[in-house]
Structure formats: structure tokens, C-alpha cells
Fold this sequence. Notes:
With about 325 residues, this protein is α/β, with parallel strands linked by helices. The protein has helices at about 1-15, 15-25, 50-65, 85-95, 140-145, 155-160, 160-165, 165-175, 190-200, 230-245, 250-260, 270-275, 295; strands at about 35, 70-80, 105-110, 120, 125-130, 130-135, 150, 180-185, 205-210, 215-220, 280-290, 300-310.
Amino acid sequence: MAEKGNKEMRGFFTVAGLMALLLGVGSAVFSGSPSVRPSALSGSWYPADRGTLMKEVDGFLRQASPSVEGERVVAMISPHAGYAYSGAVAAWGYRNLAGVPFRRVIILAPSHYVSFEGVSIPRVEFYETPLGRVRVDRNACDSLLAKSPFRTVTQAHEREHAVEIQLPFLQRTLKEFTLVPIVVGELEGDQYRVVSEQLKTLGGADMLVIASSDFTHFGPRFGYVPFVDHLRENISRLDHGAIDLILKKDWQGFLAYRNRTGATICGFRPIAVLIQMLRPDVMGRLLRYRLSGDITGDYVNSVSYASIVFFREDGGGRGDPG
């Protein structure tokens, strides 16, 4: 099973560029001060102009509705494609954060461009977007880096879009927060539990956890064609099989489903880690689901997006997922 998973991940890296072509976006080259991770997406995945980006994000948020009013969101699964494709879906999760005093945000992202074992945290002080700089919580990051399997794989963060694409939404809803940016590499067996337990030690009154993930990448462009007819119906059925297990917080069942179907859910490891961090009294809810084919009309090559939130019904706990 491990060998199969590794082969699938290596294959995924080869189609990362093709995915960018499908979504009509590109990647910038990492440069700048060692203490600042500059935007790799500005002008491609989202607008480079501050005012234009602010207007676009705020527009997505206005079109979404608060879906868990009176309940405390503690974690989210949010898509990470270019905003033209997934921004409206992501907004349904972020719409519930406005006015909530989260001060620390952990973003768990997959590695789209670099294959490595373990979990990587960059040694930078800030992430930068056209909306400004987001301070990295160095104390939290350094405490994790002192433990296995946390490490720093610099190349894993240079082009990685799955962390950065979440930031403008956070900047417009939370205003002030510190960031723990994590790129999840290959994990096996008990490593999922170890990572989730170590992350839970950061838990407190004002912590939010986000797993950044798209769902099925379907079509020859992604090397995944498990069926050839009734494409939207079958893709949706495949995605919802995974989503149902996520909502049940069955991380083992979710990983088994992904292995059995081969579903190309790029953030399956971050999702599994997040699920294990959740307390028994936390509930999950799917807020929005859409395919890129719903926009382009092309389901032969299509990527799925879902916005999922986890919350406590009584609103207690002040955001601590563990």
C-alpha cells in the first residue's frame, strides 16, 4: 500500500503543471528576503493589485451566507485553486469566521511540487500577499520543529500554493492573526496520530485549523479516468463518498476509501491529520460543493472543490479543536 501511495504521489507531481494549465493559472519563482516568503500567486491565481484583490475576496464573502451562526467553528477544509474557480466555494467557510477572535491559524497543506517524508515548516518570519504580510508564529513553529517528523524542506514552500491561497481570505475575515504554515509530505501508519497529537499541544482558546485541499482531479489531464460516462454524476458520487467519511470523522475509513478508489484528493494527508485533531463533540458540515466543469462546461478534465466546516454546537471551547 505504501509503495502504491508513493507511486501515485510521484505521478501527481508530474501533472501539477497540467493542473495549472487546466485552471488557467501559473506559478511564480520564489525570491526575496529569507525572512519573508513572497507571494508566488500574485497576478495569476489571484489579482496582484491590492484593491482589486480586496474587492474580489469581499465580493465572494458577500455572496456566501453564514452557515453555523451561534456555533463555534474550530476547523475547516477549504479548496486551493485559482480564485476564478474555487474562490466562491472557499468563501462559504470563511464567511463564518468574521468577528471570531482567532489569533493562531494552522494551515495544513499537501506538497504539490516536492516529494519528501514527514512534515515541513518553513523558517521564515512572514508570508506576503498583496494585502500585506502575515506574521508566522515562530514560537509555535520552532516548538514543532524540535520534534519528529517535523523538519524544514525549503523547496516544499517556494512554489506551494495551498497555504498562500488561503491567506487573503484570512486577512479579510480575521484581520489580525499569526500563522503556522505546514506542508505535509509522505506519512505512514502511526505518523498521522503523532503529528496530530503534536499539533494539539498548540491548542488554545483562539486556534483555527485549516486543511487545504481540492477533491477529485478527474480526466486524462490528471491521469485519472475511472469511468467514461455520466461524468458529473459519477465524479460527485466519488467525492461524496469521501466527504461522508470526513463528516463522520472516520480518518481511517477516509484513507482506506482513497486508497481503494484511487480518488485524486490532493490534500488527503492534511485532511486525515485534521480529523484526528477533532474532539468527539465536534460536528462537521458540508457548506458548498462545485466542480470546475460547472464553470467551464468541461467534465472530461475537471477538479472538485468543497467547503467543509467543523464546529461545536454549544459554541464553547473558544476554538480549541482538541
